[in-house]
Write a structure and sequence with these properties.
Blueprint: H1 3-27, E1 37-49, E2 54-59, E3 69-75, H2 78-81, E4 89-96, E5 101-109
Parallel strand pairs: 3-5
Antiparallel strand pairs: 1-2, 1-4, 2-3, 4-5
The structure holds copper (II) ion.
Amino acid sequence: MHFHPILSRLLSVTSVVVLVGCSEATNQTDAPDPAISYYEAEGRIVRILDNSRLLQINHGVIEGFMPAMTMPFEYRDEAVRKGVSVGDSVHFTVATDGTFNWVTALRIVQ
Ligand SMILES: [Cu+2]
């Protein structure tokens, strides 16, 4: 009869250890940053500023993110800029961390 309280105490201590172990393991994975959101968009390249790594894009409505407008988007990977010219119609993916926006992928559409 005395075993039950001790046993349940041991079990709850074990559970806490397991939970802590789980959260530590989660922090060590390479899972995408949950603070970054991605949106798909359509637009036309208005201007390219290579020195500041900006693509000025006249884009359509980006559902849940922003209305149609012309604005500069940063790109961080040179591959995004490669082969792109002013006047190109593009489909692109924009990432946002709530402060900065940047294009992560872009393809020219006809
Ligand atoms: Cu915009």
